[in-house]
Fold this sequence. Notes:
Elements: H1 5-35, H2 38-46, H3 48-76, H4 80-108
Helix pairs in contact: 1-3, 3-4
Amino acid sequence: MIKSATSHWLVQRITAVILIPLSFKFIIFLNLCVNAPYEETKAWLASTGNLVWIFAWLVVVFYHAALGLQVVIEDYVANQGLQSLLIKAINLSFLIMTIAVSVFMYRSL
Length: 109
């Protein structure tokens, strides 16, 4: 967990910048999902390079979202104990979602 507000702010900005190029590849993937046959989409995703890009996008977007939700909780929840509990619950939830989506992606190949 990030302790200082400055490092939290910086990491949130870094993840946002990293998401820019990763999102272009994700948009290509979404376009394939909508317009291409299933086998073509599956073959595209099975390519190691594309799979790594999509997995990187997944990890970074979930981490970025968890950081953003942490800021909202810190700003609007006054009780420190509840704040800590909610932040831990969100971090655990995003970790579980990352693992679940990764396993689902791997099994669908």
